[in-house]
Design goal:
Shape: globular
Helix content: 40-55%
Strand content: 5-15%
Distance between the termini: 51 Å
Largest sheet: 8 strands, parallel
Strand order of the largest sheet: 11-8-5-4-3-14-13-12
Radius of gyration: 24 Å
Number of strands: 14
Oligomer: single chain
Length: 613
């Protein structure tokens, strides 16, 4: 509410805001689709429309006008209708226009983009990378979750399943808006290595300058039109459109700050148990702090939608990622209650993880609260519908992490110190995805179907018609491995490795066993059928890397996603995440100038050979 306004006046003003915001789309779905497409086409991602960067002869210039940050309706997300018999018939998969789907993309975390302030963001480098993708003939930009990083600096352990990462806000854009100065940015420390994220330093410097920007923004809005504070219409539109998660998130973050960033289970009982009177009193006393957390989400959304709109204009789709679970130290867990398995004292009874596997001999103890699937079923999976709808407003395509957990999941007693003590439980299966499709239509989902796969998991994947993942680094352990390219099907996505694998260069030089090297060398025709140790030692690492990339691109899989570091030929320094390792993950950043025209041409040419351009 604006200060000095009566409640009725504020309500009327909010109603006007809502009508303006909703007026962007007609009532009918057909009319809405045409209107949305027209809006995107006419915007041309210009300075006045996108609120992002205007490309000119001088490069990319931050715009001053911020458009209403809104999440596009699901009808505008990609609609891919897969043939349910395709897993057995191997028929060509076609999209709605009847064209065969065969395309490629690049995995590049936003955090890994170069730039001046310690971490990649939604600034000039993001727009330049979209240009690079278009020049390289790539149709997909896969990113990691855009949510705030949490325990271990992981984007998969976030404080919110809905919020965006404040670190990704472009500070230069805030400077152009008059909210920051060059001197203020120069005065902060951003880390000593431009090719590595220093999360400890960022935690201090980023929030300091964001709070400075927030104070300047409030000052800009102070005293306008006879009000104490007169905030922009697009801010009110954003808060109204997202209030079902934003209000809880902002209150939760304000409480965390007031409690020294402790886990919510350590707060005083009235706050921990969400006593209404206590929360109302806290909110009244901390309006400015709560407003800060709404402000950063507002700026995040505006800037990200500008990047996404620019990518879509360039015919590049954003492949996003959502974890199956939420973090124990999150607003989702704090407000969720019956959504999760609870013990008699209201604590989490069991937590998530996975049994011993390729990545860890002891398994992985993630610690995320497990869902109370019986309760979710009673609600018609309403929370999941809300979560996926929100995600499809941010991304075009959606990778769901740990898909096998919807069939059967590893449940570990909350007091365990190792994942070995867990046991398998049944998940919701197709009931969940039927409910999602009934609410949202055909889902543009890619299933991360890695790990120990029971026949029931494979059946769930087939019934869902979602494409699964194929990983080349898993292919050479011996026998007729399902990850060998000749065993792929069209309705799949092939990767040289995932964000949990090391780079191809490091895999060959340090990760692969001699048996795997021999199998790979023979399969890729780098040696004879039974290479000797001397022949293996003579193989150039870069020849292996290129051969593996070509094996992925040449496979029958409809989509091939290559991590940027593998196109660059980088080694262990670019390994994004080692499961089970605490610290030192998610830190790699590309060097300035990595997205060179020569590399774009190489990628374009390689993908052209295999009809992916």
């Amino acid at each position: 509410m604006r200060s000095n306004e009566s409640p009725g006046g504020a309500f009327k003003r909010r109603a006007v805001c809502v009508s303006r915001w909703r007026g962007l789309a007609p009532t009918s779905s057909a009319g809405r689709d045409k209107r949305e497409i027209k809006n995107l086409d006419s915007a041309e991602h210009s300075q006045s429309e996108s609120g992002g960067y205007l490309k000119s002869k001088k490069g990319y210039t931050p715009s001053l006008k911020i458009s209403i940050p809104r999440f596009l309706p699901v009808e505008n997300s990609l609609r891919i209708c897969y043939d349910k018999k395709q897993r057995y018939s191997h028929k060509n998969v076609k999209n709605e226009e009847g064209n065969s789907m065969r395309e490629s993309g690049i995995l590049m975390p936003v955090s890994s983009l170069p730039g001046p302030y310690g971490i990649g963001c939604f600034g000039k480098e993001a727009f330049k990378f979209v240009d690079f993708l278009a020049q390289a003939g790539q149709k997909i930009w896969q990113i990691l979750p855009l949510s705030p990083t949490g325990y271990g600096d992981s984007p998969y352990q976030s404080c919110s399943a809905f919020a965006g990462n404040p670190y990704f806000i472009d500070l230069d854009a805030l400077k152009e808006e008059g909210l920051l100065t060059a001197a203020q940015l120069k005065a902060e420390k951003w880390g000593t290595d431009p090719k590595e994220v220093d999360y400890g330093t960022l935690y201090v410097s980023r929030f300091k300058v964001l709070r400075t920007a927030y104070a300047a923004w409030r000052k800009q809005c102070a005293g306008l039109h006879g009000c104490s504070y007169y905030f922009p219409d697009d801010y009110y539109a954003f808060t109204l459109a997202n209030e079902e998660w934003l209000d809880d998130y902002a209150l939760y973050m304000a409480l965390k700050v007031a409690n020294g960033m402790k886990n919510w289970v350590e707060w005083d009982k009235p706050y921990r148990l969400r006593d209404k009177k206590a929360l109302a009193a806290f909110a009244a006393e901390n309006e400015k702090e709560i407003g800060f957390w709404k402000f950063v989400q507002y700026k995040f959304a505006a800037q990200w939608q500008a990047v996404k709109a620019y990518a879509n204009k360039k015919d590049v789709q954003i492949l996003g990622d959502i974890p199956i679970y939420v973090s124990a130290d999150s607003v989702d867990a704090w407000v969720g209650g019956a959504l999760f398995e609870l013990d008699a004292d209201g604590g989490f009874a069991r937590v998530a993880g996975c049994p011993p596997d390729y990545f860890s001999a002891d398994g992985q103890l993630w610690g995320n609260p497990l869902y109370n699937w019986a309760y979710h079923k009673k609600t018609g999976y309403a929370w999941w519908v809300r979560r996926v709808r929100h995600a499809l407003g941010i991304y075009d395509l959606l990778r769901i992490d740990h898909f096998r957990g919807f069939d059967t999941y590893w449940a570990i007693p909350a007091d365990s110190t190792t994942a070995r003590t867990g046991k398998w439980e049944n998940g919701p299966g197709m009931e969940l995805f039927d409910a999602l499709e009934a609410a949202l239509g055909k889902l543009p989902i890619i299933a991360e179907d890695l790990g120990e796969l029971f026949p029931s998991v494979r059946k769930l994947l087939a019934d869902s018609t979602f494409p699964g993942m194929k990983v080349l680094q898993f292919a050479f352990s011996g026998g007729d491995n399902e990850y060998l390219p000749h065993n792929y099907i069209k309705n799949s996505v092939v990767y040289p490795g995932t964000h949990d694998n090391t780079t191809l260069t490091d895999w060959w030089e340090n990760g692969a066993s001699e048996k795997e090297k021999a199998a790979a060398a023979a399969y890729l025709h780098l040696t004879g059928v039974k290479p000797t140790a001397k022949e293996l030692a003579a193989i150039r690492t870069d020849d292996v890397r290129i051969a593996l990339l070509r094996a992925a691109l040449g496979s029958v899989a409809d989509r091939a996603i290559i991590p940027m570091y593998d196109w660059l030929g980088l080694g262990a320094e670019a390994h994004l995440n080692t499961p089970g390792k605490l610290g030192g993950n998610w830190a790699w950043r590309a060097a300035d100038g990595f997205a060179a025209k020569a590399l774009a041409k190489t990628i374009h040419d390689e993908c052209s050979v295999y009809c992916r351009v």
